[in-house]
């Protein structure tokens, strides 16, 4: 078994000098990969994700491409499900709650401290993936940040105007929901860290659409709380194309994941104590040629400077991404070593 502290990605995330930047990708285990589709075998999303052995095989699919970390295959709604709110995955609509949170009574049904047995399949998945890897690669776990998870719990998702309307009309319910999710997220991540996770990433996918005051109240303070309370491993913050770089860098995260709206080289100069992740445009992988992917990765490596940098995309691998382009993406990093 390898020493987790010696993994390339873990060392890079701690800001240590490394022989080359590590590379992985959000949604690296996904529908773009034919091997993943074979493992999924037509199962519904939640049926698939709750099948531990299938999820182990799915999580490990990207290993054959040479990525430097494995991120477990599950969904950010795993936690609210454990809290008492069932979800189903609706085609083209994403996760939909069986009964959207609307009232104080709905909130009362959500347990902010669900027993870890309620997400035992995630704990088993982590254990089994670590057994399969035998120390070869670090394992990344993740959680949705309270704001983004709350939007799914109330049934608005990425529709920020509907979320604002709900927060205005039901402000007490909204604030209490964020609070409960914040407490539950800390407990969830602490459990997975205790179980052996090497790194975690906090996803706040929709917070990048918020106004500055909203971001401070609904996102930033919860990021800071979670990062302060769930410690012991490197912590990554992802806000999809998040505009508030200063707030992201003040969140307490060790690693800040950048979108294409930010200049990686400038961010590194301005925040020399932090590590940055990204920021190859996923559109190049989806629509470009392997040569174009290679050029994009080389430009990213140059901006990253070879230090305090983890190569990733601006967001997840799209389902229409050619396998050859993902191969080129990883190879371009390793060929420059």
Question: What would you say this structure looks like, in words?
Answer:
This protein has 337 residues and is of the alpha/beta class. The protein has a single domain (4-335), classed as TIM Barrel. It has helices at residues 8-13, 34-40, 45-49, 52-60, 78-83, 104-108, 120-133, 146-153, 160-169, 171-194, 212-229, 245-249, 264-270, 282-287, 290-304, 323-335, and strands spanning 70-71, 87-90, 94-97, 139-144, 199-203, 235-238, 255-257, 275-277, 309-310. The strands form two sheets. Strands 1-4-5-6-7-8-9 form a seven-stranded parallel beta sheet. It has a two-stranded antiparallel sheet with strand order 2-3. The longest helix is centred in the middle third of the chain and has 24 residues, at 171-194. The two termini are 25 Å apart.
Write a compact overview of the structure shown.
By secondary structure, the protein is α/β, with parallel strands linked by helices. Helix content is 47%, strand content 10%.
Layout of secondary structure:
Layout: H1 8-13, H2 34-40, H3 45-49, H4 52-60, E1 70-71, H5 78-83, E2 87-90, E3 94-97, H6 104-108, H7 120-133, E4 139-144, H8 146-153, H9 160-169, H10 171-194, E5 199-203, H11 212-229, E6 235-238, H12 245-249, E7 255-257, H13 264-270, E8 275-277, H14 282-287, H15 290-304, E9 309-310, H16 323-335
CATH topology: TIM Barrel
Q: Quickly count the domains.
A: 1
Number of strands: 9
Residues in helix, %: 40-55%
Oligomer, anyone? single chain
CATH architecture: Alpha-Beta Barrel
Estimate the global geometry from the Cα principal axes. globular
Strand order of the largest sheet: 1-4-5-6-7-8-9
Q: How many helices?
A: 16
- Please outline the major beta sheet: 7 strands, parallel
Give start-end ranges of low-pLDDT stretches: none
Average residue pLDDT: 96
Following the backbone from N to C, one meets helices and strands in this order, namely HHHHEHEEHHEHHHEHEHEHEHHEH
């Amino acid at each position: 078994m390898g020493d987790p502290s010696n993994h390339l990605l873990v060392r890079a995330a701690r800001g240590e000098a490394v022989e080359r930047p590590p590379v992985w990708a959000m949604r690296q285990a996904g529908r773009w990969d034919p091997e993943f589709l074979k493992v999924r075998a037509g199962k519904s999303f939640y049926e698939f994700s709750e099948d531990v052995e299938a999820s182990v095989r799915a999580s490990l699919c990207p290993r054959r491409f040479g990525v430097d970390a494995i991120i477990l295959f599950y969904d950010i709604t795993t936690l609210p499900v454990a809290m008492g709110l069932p979800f189903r995955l609706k085609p083209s609509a994403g996760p939909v709650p069986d009964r959207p949170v609307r009232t104080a009574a709905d909130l009362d049904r959500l347990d902010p401290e669900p027993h870890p047995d309620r997400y035992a399949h995630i704990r088993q998945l982590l254990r089994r993936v670590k057994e399969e890897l035998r120390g070869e690669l670090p394992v990344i776990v993740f959680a949705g940040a309270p704001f983004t998870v709350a939007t799914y719990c109330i049934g608005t998702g990425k529709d920020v105007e509907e979320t604002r309307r709900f927060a205005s009309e039901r402000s007490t319910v909204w604030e209490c929901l964020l609070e409960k999710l914040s407490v539950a997220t800390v407990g969830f991540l602490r459990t997975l860290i205790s179980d052996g996770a090497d790194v975690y990433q906090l996803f706040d996918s929709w917070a990048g659409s918020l106004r500055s005051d909203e971001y401070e109240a609904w996102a930033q303070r919860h990021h800071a709380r979670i990062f302060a309370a769930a410690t012991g491993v490197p912590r990554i913050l992802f806000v999809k194309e998040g505009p508030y770089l200063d707030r992201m860098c003040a969140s307490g995260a060790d690693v800040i994941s950048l979108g294409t709206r930010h200049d990686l080289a400038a961010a590194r100069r301005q925040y020399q104590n932090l590590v940055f992740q990204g920021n190859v445009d996923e559109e190049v992988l989806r629509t470009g040629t392997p040569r174009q992917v290679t050029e994009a990765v080389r430009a990213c490596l140059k901006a990253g400077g070879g230090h305090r940098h983890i190569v990733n995309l601006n967001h997840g691998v799209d389902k229409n991404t050619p396998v050859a382009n993902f191969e080129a993406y990883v190879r371009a990093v390793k060929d420059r070593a």
